[in-house]
């Protein structure tokens, strides 16, 4: 299911970039909220190291997940949809075949 950059219209590229950015902002906002709560509950040095380890793992996960590449966007969008960071309405305007692929992959 390779979708190269040339398979995206200019309008689709704009929609995809906006949706990608919105999903990222949503996940970052949730992460910030969680970190603030956990930081406020730090009572011992072990709690601090646990938060550090969590943040290191989360950074690695997010850097891998939010790698904007047209050849992978269908898969990225499906994952973000499945995780709740993206809604199908965020992708309105993409070609029907792309929307169908995202929806099908998100159900897997």
Secondary-structure topology with pairs:
Blueprint: H1 10-40, H2 45-65, H3 73-83, H4 96-106
Helix pairs in contact: 3-4
Question: What does the model show?
Answer:
The protein has 108 residues and is mostly helical. The chain has one domain. 69% of the residues lie in helices and 0% in strands. Helix 3 (73-83) crosses helix 4 (96-106). The two termini are 15 Å apart.
Which series of helices and strands comes N to C? Answer: HHHH
How many structural domains? 1
Distance between the termini: 15 Å
Structural class: mainly alpha
Which residues form runs of ≥5 with pLDDT under 50? none
Radius of gyration: 17 Å
The overall pLDDT average reads 95
Helix content: 55-70%
Number of strands: 0
How many helical elements? 4
Instruction: Estimate what percentage of residues fall within beta strands.
Output: under 5%
Compact summary:
With 108 residues, the chain is mostly helical. The protein is 69% helix and 0% strand.
Features of the shown structure:
single chain; 108 residues; mainly alpha
């Amino acid at each position: 299911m390779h979708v190269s950059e040339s398979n995206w219209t200019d309008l689709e590229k704009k929609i995809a970039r906006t949706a990608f950015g919105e999903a990222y902002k949503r996940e970052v906002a949730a992460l910030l909220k969680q970190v603030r709560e956990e930081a406020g509950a730090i009572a011992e040095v072990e709690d601090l190291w646990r938060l550090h380890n969590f943040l290191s793992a989360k950074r690695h996960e997010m850097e891998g997940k939010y790698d904007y590449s047209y050849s992978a966007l269908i898969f990225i969008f499906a994952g973000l949809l499945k995780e709740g960071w993206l809604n199908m309405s965020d992708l309105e305007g993409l070609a029907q075949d792309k929307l169908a692929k995202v929806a099908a992959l998100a159900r897997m």
